[in-house]
Amino acid sequence: MNDSPVTRHTIFQNSLMSALLDGIYDGEMTVGELLGKGNFGLGTFDALDGEMVIIDGICYQLRHDGTATRADLEQRSPYSVCTNFVPRISRTAPQNIRRSELSAFIDEMTPSANYMYAVRITGTFSDVTTRTVVRQNKPYPPMTEAVGDDAEQHFTDVSGIIAGFRTPIYEKNISVPGCHVHFIDDDRTSGGHVLDFTLVEGRIELCPGTDLNLRLPLTSAFSNANLDPEDLDAQLHATEVKGGGTSAASVHAERDAR
What's 23's domain CATH number? Predict the structure, then answer.
């Protein structure tokens, strides 16, 4: 298999991560519209009502208690990223590997750090630690305050999928730099935003993205949002890597920020 991203491939994104950080939690785009853009992805729902993961063309809502249900097509999303997943790069993962170690393994799989990659890890995990945002009420607080009530969930001896995106540092005002991933089990009944995991055995697949299709909201809230805060790196670390220690996201964000 050729590991060079010679084929153009589009990743679609709805709104900006910096808008979400600023408390823009009401979305224009429905789940039905989003699924028209791709069969694989992640994001969140209106009012930060849980995390989103899209697997094989089905959108799931992951709630703060660790449960997962199929999302309604009319639900809306203030932030989401998706693509039609094509596994152009695939490797068997080393056995019993932790997330921090797997980050370096994935780096070796990528032909360039300057492209986007959809990442799918399928396998058996001895443990997965997640957290999930809790639904917020208006007036919405900034995301650094909203994640204060997050509770960690721990899954042991579970089979499932970790899905997400590896994003270059130059996109940090647009998306989450590094690896931003969500987990859902094979039964599609539990999951969340991944903080850490140990993969017993599994398969890693990458879909390189060369083109970004970005849709911005047409709302007054977005028009008035602060999309370039001075403490952007700190906000990203507090909201996306919270409790993650040396997870892949923190490794990428801290390394690339230097």
Answer: 3.30.1330.80
